[in-house]
Amino acid sequence: MPDPATEVEAAGLQAWETREGSAPASIVACPNGPLLVRGDFEIVTPDGVPVPRDRETVALCRCGGSAIKPYCDGTHKLMKFDTTRRRPVPEPARRAAEEAAG
Amino acid sequence: MKIPAPRGRVSATLLDLLQNRGGAGHANAYGSLNLLVDEALAGTPDLLRDEDLQLALFCLYELHYSGLDGVEDAAEWDPELIRVRARMEAAFEDVLRAVVPVPALPAPESEAVAESLFRLAADDKSPGASRFVAGKASVEQLQEFLILRSVYQLKEADPHSWAIPRLPVGRAKAALVEIQADEYGGGRVERMHSKLFGTTMEGLGLDSGYGYYIDLVPALTLASSNAMSLFGLNRRLRGAIAGHLAAFEMTSSIPNSFYARGFRRHGFSDEVTYYFDEHVEADAVHEQIAARDLAGGLAEAEPDLLADIIFGAATVLAIDAMLAEDQLTAWQAGETALLTPLANDGGGTAGAALAATAMAGGVTP
Ligand code: FES
Questions:
Q1: Tell me, what DSSP letter sits at residue A29?
Q2: With an 8 Å Cβ cutoff, are B285 and A33 in contact?
Q3: Which residues line ligand 1 (CB under 6 A)?
Q4: For ligand 1, what atom is nearest to the CA of residue A33?
């Protein structure tokens, strides 16, 4: 089995560079709540300016009610935001989408 | 922490004993302490609001945190003191289990637990102090509000950290550490929540030393802190401390936005309100992790803990409701919510701090 430390060295990386921060971004869609984003990602304005971010893991508002967008401030609870409600999708569109998804 | 003033025979005997450990006659002192505790526990009409007993328990717990000035560090594991603490803890836990209403248990699955906790928090109809703070509180009441909260907030996150080694390797432990890392500032001292709270206190001319105002704080506030220590320091209650943190986070972001509003209304600067602003954002993240991964993850890993997870969460809501009721009753009657009013000198420290911050914020006092 290749020694991970040797592999890291061969790739010209310091051990720490392969840990914190390099995990790919993952998004948890919290039922009735925000999108929880972890890992390596950046939030920028349309002009590419970084949006101030104070923590590793953030919650992005998806109910539209937050006063501190793009972050969630818990307002979704007061709005009774319901992620199970779906816009009805016309049958042909739904079938096409399913086929596209395989 | 400084040695607080005793509030009755139990705390007086305990504090005396702590300061004279190993001295002549201390064996007798343990004996009389035990008797006094039994007597007091049997006689108290309301353990949660018993000044003497809650202060004594708080001091015994404090030996595990910052210690008490002039008391040997070794007192932390004095078997006689642990025995006394266990007696008080047993009675305290009995009372909590009797008065805290616990909803029907969900299935021991992450999403079901999260849903049940979010519902528990949403169904909570207690008035809460946040609206009063936002709309009505005077500067003196804001100071009282900070003093009451300082008991926990100046050691914010510590009681829940006891749970880290007590949770099994897996989702729940990873979640707890992720939340706590954020609470402790993510490696930056200036962002530690306890540190931010100190800044807010100083902005109102208050002393941010841990325990500085302990003598002004009523029993129920001590009981609220004691409940966290009870859950955190007993491995068998690890479910309760996990549930406690989850409910704590879930009942935080919205009230904190109200608190911030109350301080801004009086012209306090962003530096002063930063603690609350930070919590609006942080706890909206934490509540998701705490509900699903910490509480839910623990219920999946150890289904036997489910009842305690829900009990721990319900405890937060029950004690918070009592605290809010006591505070609002006092404030609405124009009285202090502290044991004795803060000696405000008007033009002194508090007044000067307010004037300075109001000026900086462009508000004429
Ligand atoms: S999703 Fe939480 S406030 Fe919008």
A1: E
A2: no
A3: A 33-34, 61-63, 65-66, 72-76
A4: 1
Q: Which pLDDT does position A99 carry in this prediction?
A: 82
User: What does chain A come to in residues?
Assistant: 102
How far is it, in rounded angstroms, from Cα B148 to Cα A32?
33
Whole-number Å distance between alpha carbons of B327 and B336: 8
**Cα–Cα distance between B3 and B252 in angstroms, integer?**
31
pLDDT, averaged across chain B: 93
pLDDT 10s digits, A28-60: 999 999 999 999 999 999 999 999 998 999 999
pTM recorded for the entire structure: 0.89
Which structure tokens are listed for B142? 């804001």
A35 to A27, B173, B215: CA distances (angstroms) = 6, 21, 44
ipTM: 0.87
Instruction: Kindly give the pairing relationship between strand A35-38 and strand A26-29.
Output: antiparallel
